[in-house]
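Here is the promised in-class demo. Please do not try to memorize the tokens; focus on the logic of going from shape to residues.
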């Protein structure tokens, strides 16, 4: 099997099964393409195309699979050709990351402080949005990386790496009745209006609502906002108790509020980093992953990069489901 035969095969498929048009596009002869197609089918001992006389009129079932795999081979060959050019590029330009407000404000500043010292010529473009907006940007390849939280399906073309876990914190004013309790339960929280993050849409399940539903309670969510500081503002203005990421609460800066960890009553959340699986990771991208999640070894990163989608999804799920797994630490262990 020759590479040129695969190129001819794809050209035929992309030109309405016309060998003549394929030859014109490739600036070669029709007899030459026909000959190589016959040799390929002979080697594979199968008919890739359905024929009516000498005319190609369709693609066999097995031919569809062969063409799809040939596309992947040519795609990888193009990546191999580009690797040396990309690797030798000056470590400058634009590094784009889409993330949520919480990650941008509370998880990333210290990471970027160290990262920027090593790559001062690199322009960092940090874009904020909802999980669904971030996913859309990633799938359209409008950004290099996406960083978000939640159990959301990313698709077969995306590599998803769970990075760390975090708990939520319940916030309320100093004189709130919850402050008199030694231990707060879901039953206690259900008695009060709640201000928290919005559900991210049908693609993501709300672990907050699920936790209440499991004990046959319904949270009284009266106000939602994507910005943790906005949530705190509305808690201060009497809209209700707040539920935010623990990293968004500072006892020093938020002295007028009390914070209570929900680690015993609500499930932990997982923050993940994702990128298009066909993207070549430059050195600075790998260094950023190491800064953001230093517990992920080179071997683990390699497993994510080189396994097929099913295997990498199983790997991610195995980490996410084991909340006590030492390989997936809590956020505060190194970032704060």
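The designed amino acids, position by position:
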């Amino acid at each position: 099997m020759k590479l040129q035969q695969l190129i001819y095969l794809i050209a035929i498929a992309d030109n309405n099964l016309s060998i003549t048009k394929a030859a014109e596009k490739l600036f070669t002869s029709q007899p030459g393409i026909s000959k190589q197609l016959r040799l390929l089918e002979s080697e594979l001992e199968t008919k890739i195309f359905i024929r009516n006389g000498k005319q190609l009129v369709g693609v066999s079932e097995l031919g569809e699979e062969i063409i799809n795999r040939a596309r992947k081979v040519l795609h990888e060959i193009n990546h191999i050709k580009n690797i040396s050019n990309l690797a030798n590029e000056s470590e400058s330009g634009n590094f784009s990351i889409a993330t949520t407000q919480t990650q941008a404000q509370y998880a990333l500043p210290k990471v970027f402080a160290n990262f920027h010292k090593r790559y001062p010529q690199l322009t960092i473009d940090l874009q904020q949005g909802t999980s669904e907006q971030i996913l859309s940007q990633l799938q359209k390849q409008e950004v290099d990386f996406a960083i978000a939280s939640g159990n959301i399906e990313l698709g077969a073309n995306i590599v998803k790496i769970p990075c760390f876990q975090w708990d939520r914190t319940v916030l309320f004013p100093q004189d709130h009745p919850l402050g008199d309790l030694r231990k707060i339960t879901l039953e206690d929280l259900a008695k009060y209006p709640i201000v928290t993050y919005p559900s991210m849409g049908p693609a993501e399940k709300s672990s907050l609502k699920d936790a209440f539903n499991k004990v046959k309670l319904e949270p009284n969510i009266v106000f939602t906002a994507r910005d943790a500081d906005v949530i705190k503002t509305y808690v201060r203005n009497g809209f209700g108790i707040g539920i935010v990421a623990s990293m968004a609460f500072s006892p020093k800066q938020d002295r007028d509020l009390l914070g209570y960890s929900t680690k015993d009553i609500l499930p932990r959340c997982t923050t993940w980093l994702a990128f298009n699986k066909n993207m070549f990771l430059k050195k600075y991208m790998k260094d950023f992953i190491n800064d953001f999640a230093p517990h992920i070894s080179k071997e683990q990163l390699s497993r994510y990069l080189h396994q097929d989608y099913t295997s990498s999804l199983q790997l991610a799920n195995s980490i996410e489901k084991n909340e006590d797994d030492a390989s997936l630490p809590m956020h505060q262990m190194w970032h704060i």
